[in-house]
Structures are given as structure tokens and as C-alpha cells.
Amino acid sequence: MSEKSTRLAGQDCRSFVKELKLFHNSGFNTRHPKGSTLWSEKRGDTYVVYSYGNHWPLFINWNGIWFANKDKSPSRTTTRHTSQTNPYVPAVPLSSMEMCRMASYSKPEPEMLVKAAALKLIPNHLIPEVTAIRVGAAA
After folding, report:
1. Cα-flanking dihedrals φ and ψ of residue 38, to 5°?
2. Measured between alpha carbons, how far is 40 from 51 in angstroms, rounded to an integer?
């Protein structure tokens, strides 16, 4: 059974992001089925927060590792969305293009995990997997 998305005001979204819970705001946008301008999605182990469309992921959590869009926001509203949903935890900074790829495939590419390891953001249960990537033992 899939989790239901909760409708929230933008300023109330941060706790949902921290808890990896689904939400959508009450803004108007034809790209989202519920007409929202800010929402989250889950696919497997990947939780993504979007602003205005799948072309602009703000934050991604994959297996406990946070990734954040480092690119300059395209609008004041998206800047506000970033502020309202920021989980305020250490995160791997990625470009919007890298974020889109990760959201599309529902998992990070090896070099994204290497960045996470360099920042010491890898949970203990993923250390063997990332170590294998770093030494070239796994693709």
C-alpha cells in the first residue's frame, strides 16, 4: 500500500522532509497531479523534494545520505521552497543536473557516493559498498 501525500502550507513542510514523509503544498502548478508547486516523492530507497517540476529537485535522501541542489535557484519562490524544506543536516552538494539524474534513476552514481564518503556522510551499513567503489572493485 502506498503512503498518502499530506497537503501542507510551505512553512510546515520541514518536519515532513526530516521524517521522509510525503507532502504537497497548496500552490498551483499543472506539472504535479495535485496542482502543487512543492512536493515530495518516494521511489524505493530514494526520497525527493521538488520545486515546480521534476527538473528542479531540491533535496534527495538515499539510504540516509542527504544530497542538496547547489545551483542558484531559478526563482524567488524556489528559493523560499529551499528554505522551507531544508532538513538542516549535512548534505552532499550536487548540481541540478546531477540531482535530476539521481532522482530519475532512484539511486546515486558511484562518484556521488565517493563525494559523500569524502564528506564522511556514509552510514555504517553502506561503508563496504562505497569502499568497493572507491577501490574499483565494483561498478
Report:
1. -145, 125
2. 9
pTM of this prediction?
0.86
Range 28-35 contact pairs with CB under 8 angstroms and sequence separation of 24 or more: 29/53, 34/5, 34/7
pLDDT above 50 (res 137) = no
Quick one: average pLDDT of 30-48? 82
Confirm if 70 and 53 have CB atoms less than 8 A apart. no
Cell of 101: 539524474
121: CB partners within 8 A, 6+ apart:
65, 66, 90, 91, 92
In degrees rounded to 5, what are phi and psi of residue 124? -55, -40
Mean pLDDT for 33-57 is 88
Distance CA 81, CA 52 (A): 10
